[in-house]
Design a protein that fits this description.
This protein has helices at 2-8, 11-35, 39-43, 56-93, 99-114, 123-127, 134-161, 173-189. By secondary structure, it is an all-alpha fold.
């Protein structure tokens, strides 16, 4: 009954919008960054030695193409998986769990469900399976998308059962520091290969 009541408050919609926008766009941005704006050459397995860097317009065009493909192929799965995660987390929120436990549970559930979005594994072809660390990068894409989406879904589930909660969660300096360190590690893992 609580899940149906929370649907009427439209927190589920905020969860879906976040997952379809940020949860898909962040992995696409990382893939484009790793490929240096030339993911079409990675599919054809061409080795570009003397080619100049891609222009800003070419990078933008390829980003838009890749974002469209990700929304078409990964979007429906992400929509269904978001609703599943939201339903699980609303039931947890109704048990009056503390917010930090909800956020941790959301990150774990989001990450686990991200691996169930099978079209996402096609990103390995864009990153070129023959390159070293591609398996780690693809795994990282799922972890990043799942964690980012899962924590936001957990926050929306918490808001659905706690009317006093604001739009954005409060965060500590420790959380901000961990996010900066995490972002640095991610950028290092997805750094483009030098020409």
């Amino acid at each position: 009954m609580g899940f149906i009541r929370s649907l009427s408050r439209q927190y589920w919609l905020l969860s879906v919008v976040w997952t379809l926008s940020v949860g898909i766009t962040v992995p696409v941005l990382l893939t484009c960054f790793c490929c240096g704006g030339r993911w079409d050459s990675y599919i054809q397995k061409q080795v570009i030695v003397t080619a100049p860097p891609a222009s800003g317009l070419a990078v933008l065009v390829q980003f838009v193409q890749l974002e469209f493909l990700a929304i078409v192929f990964c979007g429906p799965g992400a929509f269904v998986l978001t609703l599943i995660a939201y339903a699980i987390l609303v039931r947890s929120a109704q048990k009056d769990r503390p917010l930090y436990m909800m956020i941790d549970q959301g990150a774990i559930i989001g990450t686990a469900l991200a691996f169930a979005n099978l079209p996402g594994y096609l990103s390995g072809f864009l990153l070129n399976w023959e390159r070293s660390l591609t398996e780690v990068r693809v795994t990282g894409l799922f972890i990043i998308a799942g964690t980012v989406s899962g924590t936001w879904i957990a926050w929306q589930a918490y808001r659905a059962t706690h009317s006093e909660a604001r739009f954005f969660p409060q965060y500590s300096l420790k959380t901000l520091l961990l996010l900066v360190i995490f972002a640095g590690c991610v950028m290092m893992l997805y750094a483009p290969r030098p020409l």
